[in-house]
Amino acid sequence: MFTRRFLFASTSRRTPRTRLVAALTVLTVVLTGCASTDRGDSSGGAAQDGALKVQIMSTSSTFTDLPTVVIEARDYFAKVGLDATVTHGAGNASLITQTVISGDADVGTSGTGALYNAYAEGMTDLVSLGTTNRSITFGLALSQDTIDTLAERGVTPESPVRDRVRALRGLDLAASPQGSTGNSYLRIMLSEHGVDPDRDVTIIPNNDATAQIASTRQGRTDGFAQSFPRVNFPEAEGWGGLWLNWAVDLPKLLPLASHDYYTTRSWLSKNPEVAKRVMEAMWLAHRDLQNPTAELRDDVRKLPDYADLNEDAFKAGWELAVGAYKGATPLTTKEMFDNQASLVNADRDKPLRFDFDDIYDLSAAEAAQPR
């Protein structure tokens, strides 16, 4: 079995003040747990039905980690003999790395940039078990007014990617804060086509995806960079459209280790069987995504995170995302590491100075690989 927990309720009706209070409350709980957690009691034990316990912490449920979504929709943790508690809703990936180090979670799943940065800053007990997403399931959506204005200048969503990127000069774009994977995607895309992300556009940082969408819909920003299916809302709801799809428009960086499962070496050494079963579930999810059926899509649609979404937005996001997982497995390659390291280094004053073998231990993923 697995249990789903959420750090936050939906923020769509919260004021900035209440969102801040909620975030500080969660951070206080996590930091308090750092001083009191006993790892030996929290994982690796057996539930009453014999399943092995594991605590997994994730960001909000999106298609950037579609394999975990599939695991939950198909109950694969239970099927491989795990009693898994999956906590969703961490506002940023760096909080997850700290929670894994503290022992409040056994395994974290988040954008890999946070993992690499944490390791570079001295958290060298962290170790990745493998990659859930080797592509970029992100896009940039613009308001319809902005799209119409750019069309008057001769640039449309069907124009070459170079023209679409250069047309962004002078616009205000909402994105996650600098240092995040989403922000890095945006900066790399702009820079690759000669647009200075610090001078030619205004990037407005915001950790709240709901607020990013609202700011564009209300005309306070011209567009926002987010994952599928969030970036599909404007077109589905009739107030904007998808302008850039990084899975297609930025192939230079692919493949890369964009989203990883990770833990600590100390936990892994004590719980090799739990780690293997976690990766067994991951292999099952990747198997399903090689032939994404309508039944699989409908199973995902029933999850609480997606049940109330606009149907057209969900379907559009699904179709764009599943293509990015074609041919993918949980086994990270050196090329994927190198490309992700290049992305992370674009935002670092000091480049990363560790190698693939320092931060990856694929033994669990290899042991779980179907024969």
Automatic annotation (TrEMBL):
Domain of life, source organism: Bacteria
Pfam families: NMT1_2
Signal peptide (UniProt feature, chain positions): 1-35
Keywords, comma-separated and alphabetical: Signal
Subcellular localization(s) per the UniProt record: Periplasm
Family: Belongs to the bacterial solute-binding protein SsuA/TauA family.
Transmembrane segments: none
Name of the protein described by the UniProt record: ABC transporter substrate-binding protein
UniProt cross-references to SUPFAM superfamilies, sorted A to Z: Periplasmic binding protein-like II
